[in-house]
Amino acid sequence: MKILFVASECAPFVKTGGLADVIGAVPKALAQSGIQARVMLPAYPALKALVAGAAEVWHAEKLMGGPARLLACTSEGIDLLLLDAPHLYDREGSIYLGPDGKDWTDNAERFAALSCVAAAVGIGALKKWKPDLVHMHDWQAGLVPAYMRQKSGTPPPTVMTIHNIAFQGLFPPAMMKKLGLEKRHYSRDGAEFWGHLGFLKAGLAMADRITTVSPTYARELMLPEFGMGLEGLMRYRRDDLLGILNGIDTDVWDPATDPHIAKPFSARAMGGKKASKKALLKRFGLSPGKGPLFCVISRLTTQKGLDLLLEAVPYLVARGARLALLGSGDKELETGFVAAAHAHPGTVGVVTGYDEPLSHLMQAGSDAILIPSRFEPCGLTQLYGLRYGTLPVVARTGGLADTVIDANEAALTAGVATGVQFAPVTTAALEDAIARTCDLFAQPKVWTGMMRRAMKHPVGWDSAAQEYMALYRSLADPAT
Length: 480
Ligand code: ADP
Ligand code: GLC
Description:
The protein contains 20 helices and 18 strands. The protein is α/β, with parallel strands linked by helices and 480 residues long.
């Protein structure tokens, strides 16, 4: 079976969050089951080096105001289709934001172009390769079904995956014409969303099936607190909505082989973890102490609930714990955490920015990872935490609820606990979770047992790959 993935980021080439990790890992997991997934991405500057050696498989003289070509190549074990359109993608800086920190003003054109070319490939524009199914990820790929319906030929079935419903790709309806979208798509069961042109809305209304990245988030999406205005559509399409839990790339995230950590370790031989803790304390200027070392590796946004953690810092410090935070995003939060580090030298350490190798060292060297998200479609950092014996302390929402087993009395007695969950998402509940974690840490036998169990928790892609495969089969090959 041949699947076309359409997305705006893919690790290890270009990454701003978990979406990239998923797009980089799923095709490899599917390949083991005989599915060929090709990933279509914009040819951003980070991918230009690959473009040079790639074969041109399609071109257009004019795509949203300039020439474009599609190039095929394989890199890091991933089959790529790169959309090279310099007027849209050839610019330095963030893939979504301009130098002023605001969305690029032509993001509608940039990602409509991606969807438009993906639609052409879906219908059969490439001589030697026609996908049996198109799998779209997030709003950037949402217009594929609309464009396919405008072309002659039989469109293949489509799956739309929601990685985060907070990002919807909303633009003025006047853009329809510029993007070459027929007026008929601007309807309640099409691209219209409360007077806007909604890229994600279009995909959710028109795709054959919808998936999201955890079973709990699939249920939450039907509620007004989480659906961001799309809860009605989610309820309407509930029979076509499926939650498939993300995994992680267990080759890249393996404490036994990770080149970014101080010393290898595993569930059977955990001793090496100490060396990374030492290196981490040094890197963040923290002093050793009795309490646990908590870490945070995150985008700093409202979603992640880190404003609550900032309020809880004095409590965390009073409990004898330490905190190492790596993050970037919201300037107020950045400033707040830097100030907290100054106020608590040796106890709170902060690195602002994005640093992939450091994130590995932190997963290896910390005792626990804090994730107080207000909503979390899946979350990957708690999965890395489990794999590295860094126990997740998480808000009970979305994928966090589905992947961490709370250390309550029953779970401890049954010997199944792997972390701490808390609800509601408030500072008081977070402080209570920090207190429980400190108490558990003070019982070395209990803590080590949880670590060992966490490290054995299955976090790979095997089960999700089977679920995606069954979904693809039911659509592309309904007879089986
Ligand atoms: P989201 O996609 O909502 O940001 P996820 O938990 O799914 O959340 O994925 C976040 C990914 O980005 C993880 O791989 C995490 O390690 C990484 N990450 C987040 N912030 C940073 C940072 N400042 N430096 C390095 N990696 C980061
Ligand atoms: C989004 C979500 C995150 C999820 C990731 C990958 O960025 O915020 O929870 O893990 O997508 O699916």
